[in-house]
Amino acid sequence: MNFTFLHAADLHVDSPLKGLDRYDGAPVERLRNATREALEGLVAMALDARVDFLLLAGDIYDRDWQDFHTGLFFREQMVRLERGGVRVFMVQGNHDAQGVISRQLPLPENVTVFSSRTVQTVQLEDLPVALHGRSFPDRAVDEDWVPEYPAPVTGCFNIGLLHTSLSGRAGHDRYAPTEVTALTAKGYDYWALGHVHHREVVCESPRIVFPGNLQGRHANEIGPKGCDLVRVTPAGIQSEFMPLDVVRWHRLELDISDVEDVAHFVRRVTRALDEVLEGDLQRLHAVRVHLTGTSALRNLEARQPGTLEAQVRAAAQDLDGPQVWVEQVRVRLARPLERTQVAARDDAVGELLRLVDAMMENPDEAAQFLQQPLASLLDKLPSELDLLDGVDLRDAQQMRDLLLDAESTVLARLSDEGQGAS
């Protein structure tokens, strides 16, 4: 038994990137074309590695096509694979379900899309492989489909394709929920999962994998993105993550408490950017920088707002080789004892900081507040006012960032007023 396959998911081809026009100098075309270029890279890898087949575990598209160009582009890539002798097996997820994509194009014969009515099994004629899968009929699937998956085919390497949140993953809607124990009990050799955008090896035996999405789409989808290259031999399964993202998102947390002046700050930023990039010259790096700490530079920023952001962007321009775009710089600096003093105040500002402390200590209470009163208020605003800028209120880390950003804004305003009064 010797064969090779690629496992990818969540391509989100032509995913709309909101709010790019807010950023002066943003590489808009490179960002908008990133999902397409990542798919082209996936196809090239499949052909170069001479894989026997490619698995796509849902969410090929991000939404219904605005026109046929998105579908034609995907079909063109599948034709490339057909001409190279690579078969494709795919399930549809919540974003590209039968009930979501209204326009249709016939796919080439090398592509098998699993049924949305029932679990379907495909047994390969030239390889001892049996694949089992089911596509989403509509955007929301609330039931556990795993009990419907058939028993493994004897003498075959059995693969299950499923678009699922398992028992729940932060930042992802709960679709086709199931337990890892249910997957392992089915007796398959490999579960090719989709839906979760962060790569995760859920289990080694049997191998259960979320490969993550093929291309990060915004600042909350950080780090390498790609697919898994899987080789099956008599000795077992060998799997390797293969990065395919053409734009890589980073979040750089930089504590500058010990920074003495602007020159020192620039050196620190330059060194930190070099460490983040790790000499990677192949792709565009989009970096969101968070400046934290108790620093005298806070006084400079209060006197000349935007100074530190400008220095960060200048440092990025001076880097040799890698193409870097600083997506955003968030300044969360405080002067010594500033926060403690403000939190002790007997006014609305002091109450706000004490509320932040309470919410940080009790994430459940914070989540309830953010997901109910605040979320209901935001839902009433026009859709073009994306005040949360892609923040998922169900994600604990993003929720913490939202609270800290609000606090930092208040402290910065107070500091600015203090400087103006002095």
From TrEMBL:
This protein's UniProt keywords: Exonuclease, Hydrolase, Nuclease
Name by which UniProt lists this protein: DNA repair exonuclease SbcCD nuclease subunit
One annotated GO molecular function: exonuclease activity
Pfam family, one: Metallophos
Superkingdom as given in the UniProt entry: Bacteria
Domain Calcineurin-like phosphoesterase, first and last residues per copy: 4-198
